[in-house]
Amino acid sequence: xxxxxxxxxxxxxxxxxxxxxxxxxxxxxxxxxxxxxxxxxxxxxxxxxxxxxxxxxxxxxxxxxxxxxxxxxxxxxxxxxxxxxxxxxxxxxxxxxxxxxxxxxxxxxxxxxxxxxxxxxxxxxxxxxxxxxxxxxxxxxxxxxxxxxxxxxxxxxxxxxxxxxxxxxxxxxxxxxxxxxxxxxxxxxxxxxxxxxxxxxxxxxxxxxxxxxxxxxxxxxxxxxxxxxxxxxxxxxxxxxxxxxxxxxxxxxxxxxxxxxxxxxxxxxxxxxxxxxxxxxxxxxxxxxxxxxxxxxxxxxxxxxxxxxxxxxxxxxxxxxxxxxxxxxxxxxxxxxxxxxxxxxxxxxxxxxxxxxxxxxxxxxxxxxxxxxxxxxxxxxxxxxxxxxxxxxxxxxxxxxxxxxxxxxxxxxxxxxxxxxxxxxxxxxxxxxxxxxxxxxxxxxxxxxxxxxxxxxxxxxxxxxxxxxxxxxxxxxxxxxxxxxxxxxxxxxxxxxxxxxxxxxxxxxxxxxxxxxxxxxxxxxxxxxxxxxxxxxxxxxxxxxxxxxxxxxxxxxxxxxxxxxxxxxxxxxxxxxxxxxxxxxxxxxxxxxxxxxxxxxxxxxxxxxxxxxxxxxxxxxxxxxxxxxxxxxxxxxxxxxxxxxxxxxxxxxxxxxxxxxxxxxxxxxxxxxxxxxxxxxxxxxxxxxxxxxxxxxxxxxxxxxxxxxxxxxxxxxxxxxxxxxxxxxxxxxxxxxxxxxxxxxxxxxxxxxxxxxxxxxxx
Length: 763
Prior knowledge:
Rossmann fold; eight-stranded mixed beta sheet; D-amino Acid Aminotransferase, Chain A, domain 1; about 35% helix; seven-stranded mixed beta sheet
């Protein structure tokens, strides 16, 4: 159902509380609504529901399990757009089916059962059984557990953190985490999202929505039940989506302060300033033990001990020198209680010395409860995070670094695959079919070797080839689908391996390898970059094999030896999906190779029409340089000197589940092959409409590339079930308007923007 229907949850025109009898949850919910909500609130007995002249947009229902589906159908038929189901009803599959059927029949979005409710504190809207009204702020909270949501609200209240939105999912049989991430991404008053999760019902939708949300605002995740399933796989999904994961409640808000309050942290070199040697060394120990790095300033020691009597001027002077030092990425100021300098005076001087234009962030820790009270308010007004202990400040700094690394991984431009690698799909298919005909799930040693060889991974002996041994495996996770693990050959503990979610490119594969302690050790011992690239390519090939061959359930390469002569695989095993079973889908949709088409031109050349990939970023920048200033303005509605990395990455690093980009390119490897034109199609969060945009080199005009791109993207829109394709075109862009007219687009102009035509194609 459309995400826009969630507006009825957070901003309804009216609310009704429907209950059988006087259950406590309904009583508390009605009291909360009456306390602040300015709209119409009705308290209705379930038996009297039919007497309502009209049912409001949002209905809170507290009733026995056997009555829920009928009540949902009744309120939906009466005009409700959303229903919030209070109270737990156990794990009843039949109840789930009946509730979903009733909701879909009447177009109602369901939150719950077992939902605590929703809140928008800035509007004094508290629709649920909250034990206290949450304060208003800029952070959204999405939680599955009502008790944990209550704990977070209380914790935030003590730390003076407010919320833009709160939603407690409960059993999440309809509205889930992905829906709420899509909704909150579009809300300007929400500047960060806190997720408190237990289990996911749709991992692929979650990863897709999380990747989209994290491009716009920080998303911080706390997961309970970490022993359920393989937690490393969940961690890999969080990393791949560009989110930040924390392990404890206090870390949730510590991380929030560094991400949503302070200047973004751009590097890992931390300078520490303290009014005592001991407290400075305490912070340095915490940093180094956590794998961090002390900065090496040009003129000052690190940690810097200002002495017990240090006043604000000494702190301000040190801060100014360190923020000007290019060897320093962030500064941590520590102040321990002392009789020689008042904490409040020091804090005021430090706050006044903060230069908002500086790119070097400042974190602080004012030790001592009374001193912290004096300092926190003054520093917070200057957007300087304050922590009560040095180790919490250091941990928050490291969380910010982890978030930055995940964000960089999300938008990093991968290098082109270092060889013209074309798998022998026919040979691989023969191997698979042979095993299927023989009714075998396990491939023989010869068959496994042949399968890997078809994907450019020869399997031979490694006895005479010295080096470092790894094991590479692929297995199926019930939630996240195929998962790749690489680690030490004799790994016994999780920390000795790295987990990654296919599909992979060279950057993702190399990042996974660099997380393996055995690989880091090999690099320290002189393993060359070319060998690391060869190992990364091997992982890319394994991931592509799994993406191309849906029959594969498990793969193993062992040993994989990294040495001065490159990379070799010594043994292989493979197992197919059991007869009558289907493999769990990928958490991230692989490259849609089926959309590739040869494109013969009238002049005898043959180009390739294919989906864009991250490696195409340099080719897209080169295409931009071929545009004239007039063409740039027609395409981007303004003049641009260059296509920046952030824009080009957004155009090439696609989530094929919710957007598509097609390129007309020369034959050859992405990243090397020239791109002559592209078309993009980006779906709205509702998934029923999508906006298109075309960029085509003028020196390729007259070859019919524009109509080809438009036809293919419209065909794709129809195939994915979109109802409408739309775009914005300047009226002076007559060529594009003629193209749209030829494909049946209608055109109209907004009164407030007469220079732009809004074109729409109903599918």
